[in-house]
């Protein structure tokens, strides 16, 4: 596939781009800074500028595409990860503006240039727990895509708006538009650097539902989205299979969720951030478990 990928220079994006390249896709990375990765094409552009998005959506990826002499080839899919990645980086209104306007511009340009598959990054924060003022509890566990999305911060608000925007675009166009509610992303080096602290103090993981998504498995999930057609508008939780702390499900429930309804029997180390839908509908099969990586 010929893919336009926004935000490929970021923490999550660069691993997803690497995975897509390894799978044989051609990727044009659209970001404010280039990605230094063999095989990727780069374009510097601002997602909040509609003109720039329309331009890159109708542009050559590289000089080699000039050789055919048949004009600019079309993109087969768009993956949109570019965003202000969390609160407390920019002003709240700027975070909201960049994320919502940028998503509108990217999807609008993609559909108007005939792209029929758009994948965009939503977030675990939409469920209203991660950046809550105080310790807010989920309504039930395991937490699936049917859980209410009622956040109170600008970043999570922007992601909820983006999901509504995507659903409206999908309804009019009939294209496939899939949103990934991405859990806390872990790069390979993060396991040795961060997980010892999580083992010592599991409460550090409460705002993330004690879950995580390996960046390489996220790349695999994006690839599965590209290959599964006909789902219309969908949102999928993106997480690995197990908790990110050395406690059992029962121990975590007793310590942190004693009053939260548990809707079904759960595995001994099964993640509270359910990836069941992605497994069933996309064939998502995460491979990287922190215990194996750290030899625990």
From TrEMBL:
<dbReference type="InterPro" id="IPR036291">
    <property type="entry name" value="NAD(P)-bd_dom_sf"/>
</dbReference>
<protein>
    <submittedName>
        <fullName>Nucleoside-diphosphate-sugar epimerase</fullName>
    </submittedName>
</protein>
<feature type="domain" description="NAD-dependent epimerase/dehydratase">
    <location>
        <begin position="3"/>
        <end position="189"/>
    </location>
</feature>
<dbReference type="Pfam" id="PF01370">
    <property type="entry name" value="Epimerase"/>
</dbReference>
<dbReference type="InterPro" id="IPR001509">
    <property type="entry name" value="Epimerase_deHydtase"/>
</dbReference>
């Amino acid at each position: 596939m010929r893919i336009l990928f926004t935000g490929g220079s970021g923490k999550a994006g660069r691993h997803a781009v690497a995975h897509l390249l390894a799978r044989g896709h051609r990727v044009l990375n659209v970001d404010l800074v280039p990605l230094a990765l063999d095989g990727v094409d780069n374009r510097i552009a601002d997602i909040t500028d509609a003109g720039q998005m329309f331009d890159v959506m109708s542009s050559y990826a590289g000089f080699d595409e000039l050789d055919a002499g048949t004009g600019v080839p079309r993109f087969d899919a768009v993956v949109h990860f570019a965003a202000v990645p969390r609160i407390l980086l920019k002003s709240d209104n700027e975070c909201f503006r960049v994320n919502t306007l940028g998503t509108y511009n990217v999807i609008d340009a993609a559909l108007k240039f005939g792209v029929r598959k758009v994948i965009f990054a939503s977030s675990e924060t939409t469920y209203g727990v991660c950046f809550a003022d105080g310790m807010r509890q989920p309504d039930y566990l395991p937490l699936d895509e049917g859980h209410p999305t009622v956040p109170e911060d600008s970043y999570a608000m922007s992601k909820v708006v983006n999901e509504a925007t995507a659903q409206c675009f999908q309804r009019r166009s009939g294209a496939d538009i899939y949103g990934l509610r991405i859990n806390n992303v872990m790069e390979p080096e993060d396991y040795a650097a961060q997980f010892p602290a999580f083992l010592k103090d599991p409460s550090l993981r409460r705002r993330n539902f004690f879950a995580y998504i390996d960046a390489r498995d996220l790349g695999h999930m994006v690839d599965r989205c590209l290959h599964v057609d006909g789902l219309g508008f969908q949102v999928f939780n993106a997480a690995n299979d197990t908790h990110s702390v050395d406690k059992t499900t029962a121990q975590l429930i007793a310590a942190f969720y004693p009053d939260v309804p548990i809707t079904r029997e759960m595995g001994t180390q099964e993640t509270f951030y359910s990836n069941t839908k992605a497994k069933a509908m996309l064939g998502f099969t995460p491979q990287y478990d922190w215990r194996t990586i750290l030899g625990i």
